[in-house]
Design brief:
This protein has 232 residues and is an alpha+beta fold. It has 9 helices and 5 strands, in the order H-E-E-H-H-H-H-H-E-E-E-H-H-H.
């Protein structure tokens, strides 16, 4: 029997990069999505130099490695090589997370001149005020959770499907919120490559400033979709 591969299935659902499963699957390669803005859109919070490196190099590496791992997985499935399938799980999980998390991250951001940092009235604002009091209190909670990451990872504002409400969590390395039953709404990349050229070792300033370029329209849409799915 062919081994069930949770990471492969999760990747297909999250990125819609593979159609079908197992031997004979019709597979399209994952690609790095284009940015919706210029590299300098987020300055002075995030420099064009970091954006270009982060998007064109780091994200591209996750995508390349994910495609390679999926090709090897399909080969292993075709040969019913269970040991090889198991051995590929870390690479699939890590690179799928790197791809999915960064894809969300780019959409979560927008320049201040184009509305960055502006949370307008709506369901998300109401939920934030009900649970956290103010947007400032929420940002403090997210930053504290993100600052507590040992090594590399992500800080998240999520929709907790089990509780049916907003939540603040962190994930290690490139783990996805979906792996613990959460819908990602807003992600803060706490890997050094996301901030070091601009902030050196003062990552607290990066965490504080990034709220100036949050695309709350995108976050609100993700929240609305998560709530609708939860009620369905």
């Amino acid at each position: 029997m062919m081994l069930s591969t949770r990471a492969f299935s999760a990747t297909r659902q999250a990125t819609r990069g593979v159609v079908g499963a197992g031997v004979g699957a019709v597979r399209s390669k994952h690609t790095v999505p284009d940015l919706d803005y210029d590299y300098n859109e987020l300055e002075p919070v995030i420099s064009a130099k970091i954006m270009k490196l982060h998007h064109d190099k780091h994200h591209a590496t996750y995508v390349s490695n994910l495609n390679a791992a999926e090709e090897k997985l399909l080969e292993a499935q075709a040969k019913n090589n269970v040991a090889a399938q198991v051995a590929l799980q870390p690479a699939l999980t890590f690179n799928a997370g790197g791809h999915v998390n960064h894809t969300i991250f780019w959409k979560n951001l927008i320049g201040e001149k184009n509305g960055g940092g502006q949370l307008h009235d709506g369901a998300l604002k109401t939920a934030i005020e009900q649970q956290y009091g103010t947007l400032g209190a929420l940002s403090t909670a997210v930053n504290a959770k993100t600052a507590g990451i040992l090594g590399s990872g992500w800080g998240w504002l999520t929709f907790n499907k089990a509780l049916g409400r907003l939540d603040v969590i962190s994930t290690a390395n490139q783990d996805m919120p979906s792996s613990v039953g959460h819908v990602p709404l807003l992600g803060i990349d706490a890997w050094e490559h996301a901030y070091y050229l601009d902030y050196n070792n003062v990552k607290a300033d990066y965490f504080k400033n990034i709220w100036r370029v949050v695309n709350w329209k995108d976050v609100a849409k993700r929240y609305d979709d998560a709530v609708a799915q939860h009620k369905a």
